[in-house]
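Example (one chain per record):
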Amino acid sequence: MKKLRIAVWHNLPSGGAKRALWGHVAGLIRLGHQVESWCPEMVDKKYLPLGELCREHILPFQPATYKKAPKFFGWVADARHVKNRIAAMRAHCSAAAAEINAGNFDIVFANSCVDLLAPSLARFLKVPSVLYLGEPNRRFYEALEESPWAAPTGDPGLVRLTLNSMKGQHRRLLMREELDNAGRYDRILVNSFYSRESILRAYGLESEVCYLGIDTDFFQPTNEPVEKYVIGLGSLHRHKGAKLAIQALGLIPAAQRPKLLWIGNITGNVSTAELTEMAKKSGVEFEIKIMVKDAELISYLSRATAMIYTSRLEPFGLAPLEANACGTPVIGLAEGGVRESIVPGENGLLAANARPETVAATLKKMIEDPVLAAQLRSRSRKAVLSRWKTSTAVERLEAALFDVLASTGHRK
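Predicted structure:
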């Protein structure tokens, strides 16, 4: 099989998607492919920079500035701000594409954009392209916490309805850009069958499942003693479910109740003070740690009684498999992509719904059955080794890239 020249593009924050991209790039290079990467200048340059693996091109991203609109016309400022960011991202992608087009690359492996989800890069490419997309912009396509398209409650009247419609213009601009950009790629790859369905619902476009993997040399048991805490992993955004985890633990009898340790890369739209107060009222011992070092994370994962994974409609969820790779079982929700990675009785247990009492009962089942807990711990890493290794994921990605080249009539 011939080796490829692959151009990679991304605009990813710190977190699971960036770790997955790092694994993909490192794996492609190990297979003998030549890789160069492009990204805008505002990316987190400290978290797994691809420049440590390959040549990385960091190009400008410069939205136009403007005077602040009066408070009453804030919706005008929102729309103008979005238009400027779309224009700036197009300018960045145009510059990146010009360099890629001139670089004799066989294929482009684009990844998500934190602003637009589906980046505008393919508009300007003359090279076959693949987009690896974890999910569409979920705030446009889901009702968590509230649908952005619903009319105001009650009888708002014509004036209020008109203002409400105008206030949503910035969302419509972002949504249109996302839809148009996604359709320009030769193929969209996704991380789960759940994500494939989400892309179809949101975009009306076909996509192909290309499962991710876990670096089992990096994530492995430390063989430290297991301690009486459960671990949550994710940013402090509402859909990550930290509140649900606290509510569930509050329903566990005090004598059995483990501590909740929550680790995240970034804070979000749920305040640490709010969660701390909620935990105090529920009688839950609660600790938050932000941006822990990798060695600490692996130690915390290895020592935990279990991971409590209460993230809602997670497209795939790398964190549960990272816990499994460290020998720790997962208590998750039977929704989203987690249903494809957590097999009840093998590497964890799944709560049938997101009611706190159901999650509590699922966790309590493992706490009260030492034999089950021991079986889950012994099986968790084996499950990752058999199905979810990074090396296997990279082979799947490589096959998908060659398939795109074959289907577009390019080099095989």
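Caption: The chain has 14 helices and 13 strands.
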